[in-house]
Amino acid sequence: MKVHTVLVVGMGKRGMHHAQAFHANPRFRVAGICDIDSARLEAASAKLGQPARGSDAAALARELKPDVFCFCTMPHLRLPMIRAGIEGGASLLAFEKPVTLTSAELFQVRDLIQRAGVRAVVSHQHRYGAHYRKVREIVASGALGRVHTVYGSATGWMTHMLSHLIEYTRWFNGEAPAQWVMASAAGRHKLRDNHPSPDYIAGFVQYAHGVRGIYECGAGAPDQPEVAKWWGKCRMGAQGTEGFAEVLTNGGWRTVNRSGGYQAEEGAMNYDHDTPAYIQEIADWLDDPARVHACNFAGAAQGAEIMLALQQSAARGGQVALPLTEGVDEQALLARHLTEAPVLASCEQNLKEFGLG
Ligand SMILES: NC(=O)c1ccc[n+]([C@@H]2O[C@H](COP(=O)([O-])OP(=O)(O)OC[C@H]3O[C@@H](n4cnc5c(N)ncnc54)[C@H](O)[C@@H]3O)[C@@H](O)[C@H]2O)c1
User: What is the DSSP letter of 222?
Assistant: First the structure.
């Protein structure tokens, strides 16, 4: 079977997770690595079989012509990397959430990917965790009766966490399309972060078949006292006519439903467990076009539209219909419309983690 060559761009936290998982998988060979930080590049090289190195992703892609162009750079760097991967002739682009910071960029990225006919995946790899899969299994079994609500909350701020909440609850809900959203937001402190966000955003989504989505992210979101790790205080689940099932990123899963009463089990998000499974599905999809990756771009782009529509609504007010029909700059909208009133936090720890306490 063909061994697929890979160029990994960005040798930070997530880039190293990806590169090491590609390196450990016999279906891939890490042909090149790229970072603008030469010390990081050198340190990474020894762990990855001394691949080709460079600081210019586009030039390295043209030189190496990798089968897979993977980039794990900060959220402001998406479009130029997508271009670099396509111009390097890659068959598959793999990149990190959030998909894009604005719908204007989302539309450009989507057009480029469609026109080039390349496959693309976005790393929402929590879904490989056994506790996430258990919730999906319970919902799909019908044990909750008619599902009427899916929900997600995270204390971490929007550009870090909201795409995760939407992705996994869309999955619980059978990936039904969304029809409209409405949201509100508060707090300007994190607008200048490298994951720029309002300090708190909360909103509703109308999914097809009348299922309600409820999301909140940031300092106003509730504590999850059962979970020790602050970034793991995310709760996502589904409610139906006969029960509920939910996952806590670092707190396992629990359910009450008609077939089993109360059940629960420990579990925590683990990059070392989840990333290799995500990488293996890349090989599966490259080998067989019918084995579409669970984290495929088309699905992630639907989630991104929901996330960006929530921001449009938070900035301008009112409901926003989906699918979006024009690309706008949601970051600029938020910067223009968010008031100076500081966020009201749900607990002391949120204030501390936001640098406000
Ligand atoms: N899926 C997840 O669970 C998860 C978890 C954490 C972070 N992320 C996402 O991963 C992405 C990267 O986050 P991170 O924590 O790995 O960041 P990081 O800062 O640790 O790494 C980013 C790397 O990119 C490099 N870089 C910057 N500009 C570059 C350029 N032009 N060319 C080449 N390299 C460049 C930096 O020098 C740095 O080494 C973000 O979008 C973040 O939201 C996802």
Answer: P
CA distance 94 to 8: 9
In the three-class reduction of DSSP (H, G, I as helix; E, B as strand; rest coil), residue 220 is classed as: coil
Tokens at 80, concatenated: 């130029």
| Amino acid at the residue 166 | I
- Give the residue, out of 11, 13, 34, with the most ligand 1 atoms within 8 A of its beta carbon, to mutate for a pocket test: 13
Q: Which two structure tokens, joined as six digits, stand for 157?
A: 């701020």
Element (H, E) at 38: helix 38-47
What sign has the CA pseudo-torsion 284, 290, 294, 298?
A: positive
Q: Quick check: bond before 98 cis, omega within 30?
A: yes
Retrieve residue 226's tokens: 């059962």
pTM summary value? 0.98
Distance CA 89, CA 196 (A): 31
Question: Is the Cβ atom of 36 under 6 angstroms away from ligand 1?
Answer: yes
Q: Which atom of ligand 1 is nearest to the CA of 75?
A: 41
Q: Is 174 left (phi over 0), alpha (psi -120 to 50) or beta?
A: left
Q: Say how many Å lie between the CA of residue 83 and the centre of ligand 1.
A: 18
Give the model confidence (pLDDT) of 186-223 as tens digits: 999 999 999 999 999 999 999 998 999 999 999 999 99
Per-residue pLDDT of 54-79, as tens digits, reads 999 999 999 999 999 999 999 999 99
- The DSSP code sequence of 170-182 is HHHTTTPPEEEEE
Instruction: Give the side-chain half-sphere CA count within 13 A for 223.
Output: 13
